[in-house]
Amino acid sequence: MAERVEGSVAQGENTIEERHVGAMWELEQKLDQPMDEEANKLKNMYREKGLSMLMLLRLSFQSLGIVYGDLGTSPLYVFYNTFPDGISDSEDVIGALSLIIYSLLLIPLIKYVIIVCKANDNGQGGTLAIYSLLCRHAKVKLIPNQQRSDEDLTTYSRTLLPEGSFAAKTKKWLESKESRKRALLFIVLLGTCMMIGDVLSATGGIKVISPKMSSDIVVLVSIIILIGLFSMQHYGTDKVGWLFAPIVFIWFLFIGATGMYNICKHDTSVLKAFSPTYIYLYFKRRGLDGWISLGGILLSITGTEALYADIAYFPLLAIQLAFTFFVFPCLLLAYCGQAAYLVNNKDHYKDAFYASMPGTAVVLVMLATTLLMILIMLLVWRCHWILVLIFAVLTLVPELSYFSAVIWKINQGGWVPLIIAAISLLVMSVWHYATVKKYEFEVHSKVSMSWILGLGPSLGLVRVPGIGLVYTELASGVPHIFSHFITNLPAIHSVVVFVCVKYLPVYTVPEEERFLVKRIGPKTFRMFRCVARYGYKDLHRKDDDFENKLLNNLFSFIRIETMMEPEEDEEEDELQYLKTCKESGVVHIMGNTVVKARNGSWLPKKVAIDYVYAFLAKICRENSVILHVPHETLLNVGQVFYV
C-alpha cells in the first residue's frame, strides 16, 4: 500500500513538473516570438527592368572579354594533346574532330548555356549558387538557423513541392539523415576546391608557348599577370570587359576565318565528322589509346565551368547570345579547319599546336555541377524524372568518360590541381566543422529569456547610460556571452539590443529589407532584438555605416509600433530617451570565442582545431571589421569552448 502511495505521489510530482516546464516553454515562446510579422512589414515588390536589344548586343559583346578567354585559346593545344605521339591515320583526325564537335555541343552549349545557366541564384552562378538554391528548397543546411521570416525576402525565391511527388520524396530522403546533408556539402566543397585548383595550376600553361622556358620565368610571368589583373579589378567589370572584348572578338574572328580557309583549301571532307558514327569508329580503331586521348579532347571544353561562374556579371540572355551565335560557330570552324590541315599534313602537328598540362580539375567540377543540377531539376524546377534521367545520361556519360581518361594522365601534371584542391577541401572542412560546433555551443548554452525578465527592469544590475549592442549568432534567446559579461561586470547599458548578424542562402539582401527589429519584454526593460541579414555576395564589401543604419531602424520600429497608439507623448519620450542614450555612447559587445580540442583528443583533431582552425580564425575578417565597428567602442568578451 505504501509503495502504491509513493508511486502516486511521484507520479503527481512528475505531472506538476511537466506542467511547470510546459508553462515555462509557452512563456518563453511568447516573450521571444519569431520575427514573421516584422518581416512581412518589410516585404516589397521587386522586378528587374528589361533590356533593349541594343543594350543586350552591347553586353553580349562585352561578355567576350570576361567569359570566353579560356574556351577561345583551347584550339591552340587540343590536337597536340590528343595525338602526343603523332598521327598514324587520317581517319583518327576525323574521329577526334567528331568527339570535339559533340563535346562542344553537349557540354558547353546544351548542358551549360541552355540548362545549367538557368539554375542561377538571381543572376549568380557557380557551385555555391546551386547550393544556396538547394538550401532554400530543402532543409539541407548543417547549421539550423533558418526562420520563417527569411522566406519573405524578395531575393528568397522558392517553390513548394506537391505532396507525394517524386521531387517531394527526394526532398524528404535528402533531409532525413545528417550523413546525406554532409555528402551534399562535400560535393559542393569539392567542386569549389577543384575550381580553385584549376585556376591556380593553370598558370603552368604559360610554359606552352616556349617549352624551354624555365620554371622561374613561368612563376615570374604568372605573378606579373596576377598583379596586373588584380590592379585592374578596381576599375570594375565594365571597363575590364571593354578592354579585353575587342581583343577576344578579333581572336574568334581570326580562328573562325582561318578555319574556314583551311576547310576550303585542304579538305572539305572533314565535315563528315558531324556524323557521330566516326566516334564509334575512332574508339574501335584506337582502343585503349583512343580512350586515353579523351584527356586531350577534354581541353576543348576547358573554361566552360568559368562560363557558369561568370554569369553574375552579365544578363543570362547576353551570354547565351554571345556563345550560341558567335563563340560556338567560330570554335567549330577553328577545329574543323585544323583537322582539314592535319589530314594532309600529319607530320606538322607539333609545329601547329602547343603542349599543355592535362586541365584534371575541370572534369571534376563538371561532375559536381551535374550531380547538383540533378537535385535542382527535381527540387527547384520540379522536372519529370524522365527528363532528369535524360539530362543525367547525356551529361554523365561523356564526363565520366573524360574523367576515366584523365586518370591515366595523373602523373603528367594532373596531380597538381588535385593536390591544391585536396588542401583547400581540408581547410574548408576544418573551418566548417569548428563553425558548426561553435553554433551548437551557442544554442545549448543560451540563457532563458524568462529568467532574464524575471530579474525585473533593472535586470538585477546597474543600468548605465548608453546603448549596448550585444552580438550573437542566435536569432532567439539570450547568448551565453551576455550572462558571462554580467557575471563578471554586474552592470549593463540602459538600452540593450541583441544583434544577430545572419548570412542567408541568397546572393544579396536589399538594403531596405536588411534589418528586422522587435521589442523583448515590457517597454520598461528597454531591450530589443535586431537581426541583420546578409547574402553571400554582401560579404565582399564592408558595411561602413552599420551602426547608424541599425539605430535608424530601431527608431523607425518605435515610431511604427506606437503609430496606432494614442499616447504620442510616450513615443516621443522613448525616442528622446534613445537619442540621449545614443549621445551617451554606443558600445559593441562581441564574443571572442576560442575553440580548442578537448584533452585526450587524437592528434589529427588537435592539429586541425588548435593550429589549422586557430590560424584561419586569426587571419579571417571578424564581424567587427566587416561591420566597420570603431575600435574604441568595441568590447570583446572572451570565452573558451572545447570540442
Description:
Belongs to the HAK/KUP transporter (TC 2.A.72.3) family. It is found in: Cell membrane. It is a multi-pass membrane protein. Keywords: Ion transport, Membrane, Potassium, Potassium transport, Transmembrane, Transmembrane helix, Transport. InterPro entries: K+_transporter, K_trans_C, K_trans_N. There is one protein chain. With 643 residues, the chain is α/β, with parallel strands linked by helices. Strands 3-4-2-1-5-6 form a six-stranded mixed sheet, sandwiched between helices. α22 links the parallel β1 and β2. The longest helix is centred in the first third of the chain and has 30 residues. The chain is elongated. The relative contact order is 0.12.
Unreliable spans: 1-25, 42-49, 351-358
> What's the story with the biggest beta sheet?
6 strands, mixed
Which term fits the overall shape? elongated
Rg to the nearest angstrom?
30 Å
How far apart the termini lie comes to 50 Å
**How many beta-strand runs?**
6
Average pLDDT:
77
Structural class: alpha/beta
Helical content (DSSP H or I, runs of 4+):
55-70%
Strand line-up of the largest beta sheet:
3-4-2-1-5-6
Binned strand content:
5-15%
Tally of alpha and pi helices? 26
Keywords: Ion transport, Membrane, Potassium, Potassium transport, Transmembrane, Transmembrane helix, Transport
InterPro entries: K+_transporter, K_trans_C, K_trans_N
Domain K+ potassium transporter integral membrane: 60-358, 359-452
Family: Belongs to the HAK/KUP transporter (TC 2.A.72.3) family.
